[in-house]
């Protein structure tokens, strides 16, 4: 029978001795080339079951005695062997074998053990040294697998972060495109109207020019003058400059407002979409709140009214694009939690040690079993396509990397409040006393 056990290649076939082999014969055997590398020889019974091991040292002790060979040489080896040798079944795993052997070793490294098959019959000898080497190899292999798993895990984590970022970017771009469309639409209308209004004005300027030419020309006769006057009056009636003045003011005002709104969105988008993870030295978190609100406006406007109470904040070092991502997720979550038209209260303030941002909504709130899991990756209660379940777990990591904390309180039916705390840099003397 062949065995595929991990111990098979530790097996050193060594012809065993019968228990009645004489000590002198054993000594001769130990001198043969095949036994030279071994410290001991196995002894088996008639059925091939191991009975013990006889070691070189035991034989040496016997032969060193005065008349040792003469007195003991003819005795059977069974009388002097170690009758309690280490026996390991080939069926056991490498780890199990290593455990058995190392826990029973008397002379580490130099000892040998007997390997038996499933029926308990002698198959060969193994050395502790080989066993340890095999274990070391196994550990090295496992380490390599673990290292690879770690690299894979890090990679997939980075991909997940990226995919949540892309998902929120996608939402954001759709929102901003929608927001841009409204002012763009009426700016375009207004410009078209202005182009139409321009025509009677040009006509008025034309007829007035002809009239003036007539008045200045010495040879202009009455008929030409009255025709020019008639045309000028007609053009003036057409253009109706008194009415036009008001219209134009309105049109230019609206157009300018639309352009400002577009400008504001573009600045918001530019501030927001800094995809780098770079830390900046002094960031006013109110700017982050404002630009995240601009970006989230389209998602919020039909769901809730936003009330901002932004206090004076000291500037702090942080990665604004990451904080924006956190805030956008909080605002979108709040909007998505609304059952009717609700309210989102955004507050910022600072205390001695930190800058705080609170985002409170009047949405449906969360029962304790949901609340317990919201920071777990992939936990979502939203239908496919609406939630990735990564927003809060990534937010948690971002705030943690900033040395801050994110806490939540929620009550079903009443709403939810998230509180973010980001540490203020401490003045050197304060740091020391702390
Ligand atoms: N303001 C909130 N009100 C009620 N439930 C919320 C709120 N914010 C988060 N949650 C719950 O936490 C879950 C996880 O949120 P998040 O990690 O942002 O993933 P996602 O929004 O993709 O579901 C949500 O699915 C929701 O059940
Ligand atoms: Mg979310």
Automatic annotation (TrEMBL):
Keyword Lipid metabolism among record annotations: no
EC number from the UniProt entry: 2.7.13.3
This protein's record includes keyword Cytoplasm: no
Coiled coil location: none
Domain spans labelled CBS: 10-71
Reaction it catalyzes: ATP + protein L-histidine = ADP + protein N-phospho-L-histidine
Ranges of residues in domain Histidine kinase: 175-426
CDD domains: HATPase_AtoS-like, HisKA
Domain of life: Bacteria
MF-aspect GO terms: phosphorelay sensor kinase activity
UniProt name for this protein: histidine kinase
Residues passing through the membrane, by range: none
Enzyme class: transferase
Keywords: CBS domain, Phosphoprotein
